[in-house]
Structure formats: C-alpha cells, structure tokens
C-alpha cells in the first residue's frame, strides 16, 4: 500500500495524460484548503503534544512519589488511553452537546456558565475543544514513558542534592530533567507522529467542521480519497505527511543509532 500510494501520487490527474507527473504536488502548493489544513494540523499537534508533555510529566512525578494506593491511581490515569479514538470522540461529542450534553449542565450548576455553549460549532471554540479532548485522551501515553524514565533515575542523586542543600526545584532542573532527556526525546517523537495521524477523534467529533476549522491532514486525506475519489491527490498528501513525520523522527532515529 505504501508503494502504491507513492506511485499514485505521481500519476497524471487529467484524462489522456500518460507517464509520471508532479501535477498533484503542484496542486497542493496552490490549494488554499490544504494550506489551512496543514496549519490546523500544526496548531493541533503543537498544543496537544505540549500539553501532553506538561500534564504527563506532572502525573508521572505524582505516581513516582510515595502515593498511597499507587496502583489504583495508575490504573485511573491510564483509563483515557485505553478508550479507542472513535469511542472517545463520540462520548465527548455527546458531552459537548449544547442541549443535552453533561458538560454545559455541570458548568451551569456550579455557576461557571449562565447559558449553554456550543463548543463544537463555535468557530472560536471548536479547535480548543478538540485539543482538550485530545489532551485527556493522549497524556497517559507520555506519562507512561516519562514514568519509566523517572524510575530509572538513581535515588542517590536526589539524596546527594538534598545533602548539598538543593531545593525541590533545583533537583528537578539539575537531576530530573537531565535524567529524562532521552525519554523526553522518545515521548516527543512518538507523540508527534501519533498526533499528526490522529483521525478517529476528529472525525467522530467534528468531521473537520465547522467549515474546515478543525480539518487536519488525516481527515482531509480521507475525504479526498474516499469521498471525492481523488486518489492521486490524496496519495500526494499522504506522501507529504510521511516526509514531515520522517523529519520529525530523525532525532529519535539518530539517538537509537548512537546507542546501538
């Protein structure tokens, strides 16, 4: 399938043309919808991965501490990650519903809202709402990686730093972060790859709407291929996504090669 997609991307798009051509790639450069979708994807990935790193590290540090009933809290923290994308999207679409959704009802009862909010149809809130759901859905993946890194940091380093009078913040900056350097690179590379190709969540919640305000590369490719039957154009988008992800993965690949 990968080789077929590459070959499709160089196929002519006009009837009667033969041979290989760059017509699909030239069309990408002129397509305003592709540019908007690419920008939407960049925003979605940037804020999703950034929030995953912050929340994942915070929860990992809590779970790595002397927490009572630690196994129970680990299971609770992992629950969002085991929910399939499509199921999570459907559940949150129902929760966001302005008429019978539970989120508006809860916020009105606690006094944070006066009237129901149209979370997924409001142009200013649709992308933010999708990112918040993706934050809840995806942070356990980063948390697991960073938790493994935290457990591998020798305890005597913290003990030595405490004896030297280092504060908790100083220990975090000079002991925790350097000890997590490799794990942070791994988490960043893998999470970016996952988020760029995120499909089920967006498709189930907004289908790229309102308009194309939450359209990302994966949903745009799906529509071009399976709804508009523009196989060559959709294949070209897929190849561009592959090249971008390969560039993002290079630091991770380089690190693995150096270790070997």
Could you characterize the architecture of this molecule?
Helices cover 74% and strands 0% of the residues. The chain contains 13 helices and no strands. The chain has helices spanning 2-9, 23-30, 32-64, 70-82, 85-96, 102-109, 126-152, 155-163, 168-179, 181-196, 200-205, 217-227, 231-259. The longest helix has 33 residues, at 32-64. The two termini are 30 Å apart.
The amount of helix comes to: over 70%
> What is the radius of gyration computed over CA atoms, rounded to a whole number of angstroms?
22 Å
Strand content: under 5%
- In DSSP terms (H or I, runs of 4 or more residues), the helix count works out at 13
Query: What sort of overall outline do the alpha carbons produce when their principal axes are compared?
Result: flat
The number of distinct β-strands equals: 0
Class by alpha and beta content:
mainly alpha
Largest sheet: none
- Helix and strand succession? HHHHHHHHHHHHH
Topology:
Blueprint: H1 2-9, H2 23-30, H3 32-64, H4 70-82, H5 85-96, H6 102-109, H7 126-152, H8 155-163, H9 168-179, H10 181-196, H11 200-205, H12 217-227, H13 231-259
């Amino acid at each position: 399938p990968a080789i077929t997609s590459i070959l499709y991307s160089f196929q002519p798009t006009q009837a009667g043309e033969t041979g290989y051509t760059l017509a699909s790639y030239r069309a990408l450069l002129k397509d305003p919808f592709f540019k908007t979708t690419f920008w939407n994807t960049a925003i979605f990935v940037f804020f999703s991965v950034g929030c995953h790193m912050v929340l994942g590290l915070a929860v990992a540090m809590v779970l790595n501490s002397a927490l009572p009933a630690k196994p129970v809290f680990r299971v609770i923290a992992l629950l969002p990650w085991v929910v399939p994308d499509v199921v999570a999207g459907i559940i949150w679409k129902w929760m966001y519903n302005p008429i019978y959704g539970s989120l508006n009802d809860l916020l009105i009862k606690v006094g944070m809202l006066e009237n129901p909010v149209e979370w997924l149809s409001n142009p200013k809130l649709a992308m933010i709402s999708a990112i918040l759901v993706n934050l809840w859905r995806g942070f356990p993946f980063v948390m697991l990686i960073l938790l493994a890194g935290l457990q591998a940091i020798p305890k005597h380093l913290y003990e030595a730093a405490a004896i030297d009078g280092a504060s908790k913040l100083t220990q975090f900056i000079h002991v925790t972060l350097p000890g997590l350097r490799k794990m942070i690179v791994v988490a960043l590379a893998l999470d970016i790859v996952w988020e760029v190709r995120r499909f089920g969540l967006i498709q189930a919640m907004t289908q790229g709407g309102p308009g194309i305000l939450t359209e990302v590369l994966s949903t745009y490719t799906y529509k071009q291929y399976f709804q508009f039957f523009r196989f060559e154009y959709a294949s070209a988008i897929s190849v561009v996504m592959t090249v971008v992800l390969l560039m993002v993965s290079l630091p991770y690949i380089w690190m693995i090669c150096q270790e070997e």
